[in-house]
Structures are given as structure tokens and as C-alpha cells.
Amino acid sequence: MSRPADRAWVADRRIGWRILLTASLGEAVPTVELAGRLAALTRSEGWTSRPPLTAPTLGQLREALAGSSPEPLLVGVHGRDVVLSAHHSVVDGLGLLVVLERLGLGPATSTARGVGDRATTGGLAATVARRLGEVAFHPPAGVTPPTVSGPRAGDALVEAELAGTVRAARLVHAAARAVVRHEAVQGRNARHVAIAVGAVRGQQTAGDGQQLGDHSVLLRLRDVERLDLAEVGQALRTAPVVTPPTPAGERPWSRLTAGMASVGLRLLAPRLGSTLLVSHLGDVTAPHLDRLAFHPVTAGGSGISLGAVGHRGRTVLTLRARAAQWNDNGLEQLLEAVVSLLAEEP
């Protein structure tokens, strides 16, 4: 058995779809105990499993866990760092905090709230039609990658840390401005910056007995470069939930619809996608952990994701992109722009 949600998961299968959460403890991780809890967790969920993985460095461990893998959940250990890697079809970002608890590293609770029963962008056909119109007349801005010598497989992963908490609106606003600044340096205008923002559907928060699964949804903001901070906040409060590329129920044509959606995503992902994906896990209370870092998935559009998580009065930001197009240095420069723009905002 690979992924329990395979039948409904029709997203672009060329992408690994693995999300990463790195948790730093105050002392070395008790690997034997962790392995036992991991085996119990995967057994209770009916998942295939492997013992905790190791690597010479934390960076190498993350890179190994970010790649495509059939296991729903993988865990890596390096010194006092534990890296969780989950396929997004079975665990969402807040679900990783639940995994921490079930591995004996909790409690871990977040201030993040769901979007409740907010309206969607409509039926699948109508949603796709609107996006095709966007591609034809107002294609989303891209992010020009650096010249990469000897491109690698997998993903490039970088991070930065800043004092204080960062609201989602500030993060989205700064991210859009960073893209505009980056493109200006390249001699390009960033028009129609589209930001996909990760959220969860219900009102439940991690740590409230949440069941593991993918409860995530996307909000999508267009022309963000034209919005001020207050307008970004308003857009986040009112944007409809993007209709997922899956049939609503089992009908005679469901398999055909899923197949068509999968093919369409593969062919059109570079243009249908967003300029950037932003996913914020909120401010997390985890008394047994010193630090947290979250790396969302990379898919569609530019293939760049900006992750954030607050903990102990600080916020860790991450950028993740395909190593075939980006190196660490290029990503670090883009992330530094986000950090400096956040420092300018209230």
C-alpha cells in the first residue's frame, strides 16, 4: 500500500508532493524511542513505513526527504533535529504538528484557524475555464531563476529567521514586493503577481484531536503587486477557496474526469500555476521544542514556495524551489528581499 488517498489524488504526479517540518530539540533525539513511536503511528494508520533515516548533514537529510517516495510518512534524525516528511495527500501542514505529538515530541498547537465554510470558485469546469482565460489574457508573473551551472535533481531549500511574529497578510504583501524587486533587477516588470495561500477548510486547530489527512485548501490572490497591506488582508479574508482538481463524487464519469484533470495539470501547470505559494503554520506553542521550520510543496507556475512558522517569539521563513532552476545562493537572495521588506512594514 502506498498512499491511502491515491484514488482521489489527481495532482501533477511529476512532483514529489512532500511537505517537510524540521523540529529542533534541546538535546539529541532518542532514536530508539522515536523509531518505536513511528512504527506504532504508521501501523495505526495502515501505512507502509521505514525506520528513521539519517544523513551526514541536516541539509542532506532534508534533500533526501524532500524527494519523491511511496511512503506516506518518513522521519529523519540528525543530532537534535527531527525532520518529518509527509505526502500531502495524507497529511497537511497542521497535521505535521499532530504527527509531532504522536511521536512523543509534543504538545504542539497552532494559532492558525481554518476558513470555515467559505464559498469556492465554483465547479471544476467553470474554475478551469476562468484559469484558461487568465492564461490567455493575464498570465501570472514568473520569477526569473538565476543561471544555474550543473543543475541538480530535487529541490533547493533555504531558510532565514527573524524576531517577532509575522501575520499572513504581511508575509504575502512582502513576498509580492520581493518578486517585483527581484524582477526589476533582472530588467523585467512583474505584472499579475498571483499568490496561492495555503489554508485549512475547517475551524479545527492542530492539537485539538485533529485526525490525520489532507484538510488543506488554497486561496488565490491575483495582481497582488497592486495591493497595499490592508487590501491584502481584506483579500485573504474574502477570497474564495480554489476548487480542487478532483471530481465531487463517484459518478460514471469520475475516473475520466480525474484523468483529464491530471493530464491538464501536467500540460498547463507552468502557466496555470501561481507566481508563488505561501503557507504559514501560524504561531506554534511547543514547549519541548527549541525551533521549527516548515517547507511547503513546490508545484505549478514558478515552482517556488514560501513557508513560515512562528515559535518562541521568532519566525522561521523558508524558500523551496526546484534545484534544476534554482541554487541556494539565488534562493537566499530572494528570501533576503522578503526579510528586508518585512522589516519595513508595521
Report on the architecture of this protein.
This is Diacylglycerol O-acyltransferase. It comes from Nocardioides daeguensis. It is built from eight helices and eleven strands. It is of the alpha+beta class. Strands 4, 5, 6, 7, 8, 10 and 11 form a seven-stranded mixed sheet that branches. The chain has a four-stranded antiparallel sheet with strand order 2-3-1-9, sandwiched between helices. A hairpin with a 2-residue loop joins strand 10 and strand 11. Helix 5 (168-185) packs across helix 6 (229-238) and helix 5 packs across helix 8 (328-344). Residues 1-10, 203-208 and 246-254 have low confidence and may be disordered.
In percent terms, what proportion of residues is strand?
15-25%
Total beta-strand segments: 11
Question: Which structural class matches the secondary elements?
Answer: alpha+beta
Major sheet description: 7 strands, mixed
How many angstroms does the end-to-end distance come to? 49 Å
How confident overall, as mean pLDDT? Answer: 84
Tell me the helix content. Answer: 25-40%
Radius of gyration, in angstroms, nearest whole number: 19 Å
Question: Number of helical segments?
Answer: 8
